[in-house]
Design brief:
The structure is a homodimer of 328-residue chains.
Chain A lengths: L3 H8 L3 H9 L6 H14 L5 H8 L4 E5 L8 H17 L3 E4 L5 H9 L5 E5 L6 H7 L5 E4 L10 E4 L1 H14 L4 E5 L3 H5 L3 H17 L2 E5 L7 H11 L5 E4 L5 H15 L4 E6 L1 H5 L6 E4 L2 H18 L5 E4 L3 E2 L5
The structure holds a DNA duplex (30 and 30 nucleotides).
Chain lengths: 328, 328
Amino acid sequence: MVTIADVAQKAGVSISTVSYVMSGKRAISQETRDRVEKAIDSLGFSPHAGARSLASRSTNVIGLQAPLRTGVDVHVVMQIVTGVVTQARKHGYDILLLASDDSKALQRAAKGSMVDALLVMDVESDDPRIDTLSGLGHPSVLIGLPAGRRSVPCVDFDFEAAGWLAVDRLVALGHKRLALIGSPPEVMSRHTSYADRLARGFLAACEANGVTGTVHACPSTSESIATVDGVMTEDPGITGFFVHNEGALPHVATTIAQRGRQRGDEPAIVALCPDDVARSVPGLADSIAVPAEAIGAAATDMICEILSSGAKPAVRLLPPALTGAPTP
Amino acid sequence: MVTIADVAQKAGVSISTVSYVMSGKRAISQETRDRVEKAIDSLGFSPHAGARSLASRSTNVIGLQAPLRTGVDVHVVMQIVTGVVTQARKHGYDILLLASDDSKALQRAAKGSMVDALLVMDVESDDPRIDTLSGLGHPSVLIGLPAGRRSVPCVDFDFEAAGWLAVDRLVALGHKRLALIGSPPEVMSRHTSYADRLARGFLAACEANGVTGTVHACPSTSESIATVDGVMTEDPGITGFFVHNEGALPHVATTIAQRGRQRGDEPAIVALCPDDVARSVPGLADSIAVPAEAIGAAATDMICEILSSGAKPAVRLLPPALTGAPTP
DNA sequence: TCGAACTTTCGAAGCGCTTCAACACTGAGA
DNA sequence: TCTCAGTGTTGAAGCGCTTCGAAAGTTCGA
């Protein structure tokens, strides 16, 4: 293993000079700097992360607690993680993936000085991890927007605004009766933050627009077909659909189109999902992109900002935007 | 921050005794051990990871290079990562998620002593990373099975055997003309290892069974509908389908069932995908589970074994198994 | 009773890095 | 000429842990 001492010897300078060349924390003459950098390159030196973290009391690692279970929104989770990892590297940080989704894992990482900060995805409103985090003394950011006291900074997509946007669009297309085909029942009944916020925005926008709107939980399997059939049978006047359910989307889109053809009207669907998912499904009026990668990047930016400047920003919500087929 | 010195003082022993209690590398009397453990608990001590890695020259971290791009097989990637992370914790390791999928990232992690070993997913046959890995001096395992020299141990699902299994099943159900609806064209033409192996097993099994079999690349979007339509139009005698394409599966299943109904025969589908994906799609004859989480776990086990015993195992392929609706 | 052979515990030397205080220069101002 | 401020560099003291060699204490057989 090549150490800083080898570099120093090869460059004919002291160890501390090499260190200062790397960190840039003190002025070093151009000549010396060149010599040191050449030595570093020729020896292929890279500093020992452990030694560095011991001496500098910081690890350049961010702990990420991601919900790894399959099920809802794998694409979204994946993209957020990608955003986090990519952006973290830009700031010079690496990502330690935390195994279980409990407080223990967070504590282990923080107290063992394995990470400088923590990023937590998929937080429930009354999640015990929030208290853990605020008691930990490590900077941390939630990806999500739990209700209640804001003791930890949050980054998320503005689901409430997305509800408004979808309704406005469907109304502009001429639809008077709308349905939100949402997350699976278990997500709805857990009062998962994003599902709640989406429904709230959707219903408020319906009222503001003077149209009727109903919210329906929907399994993310092919059972969604039955759900949609049920909705369309019960109220045949519903022609505007807002779908937020990745697994169900292909089934739902097909079903709605078929039933529409059968009864001779033209239902429209606005989907809320990542762009590439939307593109793989035909017959969508529009979609609202969940900017998953941007969410990850924004959360990472926020935590890096806290880390470097000590700032304590509160909440940041990314605005929704329509993408998709231009109005016919 | 609580250090080992605090623990030692509180327990009335020396620092080294505390260290030996934690590592178990030397005999410590039960009485002393109890006292130390109580001190550790009451102070909430956890050793500084950096200091530990500096002194012991090992980090207890495994670097994982996962293909984070969305697209093919998000579910599978997710489950493999879950398997890796979970199993790693059981062995006392944490997972560092590597950002980019190039050799640089691997070198950075290894040479900076950030990890003890490397796990690399999604390796192409002539991947330059293979050489990087074997030159790195760190234990490493590939998840996948590149062709060519076996310079790095591999763990993967036995796609070739899966091809045989699917054909045997479809033949047992009475089908004489089979089609493999496979990965997207770009994956096929890259000669991605798993796609090649699957096709090879499928075709060999068709020949051995005396039935005809054809292989078709298929986009993982709704365009898959056209692909399948094309296949069924061109050879209406094809009634046995083997589908290996997560994104296309819902579309493909629906299309095949519809066309079957139209022409009055009973096509059968065997799907190759994770169990939970299969469950969300109706009308599958059977499915062959991709034991994604088990693959991750097996790869982790292998690397931990190498790490602890220095063993150099070569290739491990997990056998396929049919799960699904019992024969009607 | 003495020493050999254990068992249990300890002191101290690092591991490779950062960073502080201090030193040696240089040039400018008095 | 002497100070003073600034610039560039260095030596050495840790950071918190592991681990080796050795010390202290205990047991046992001769």
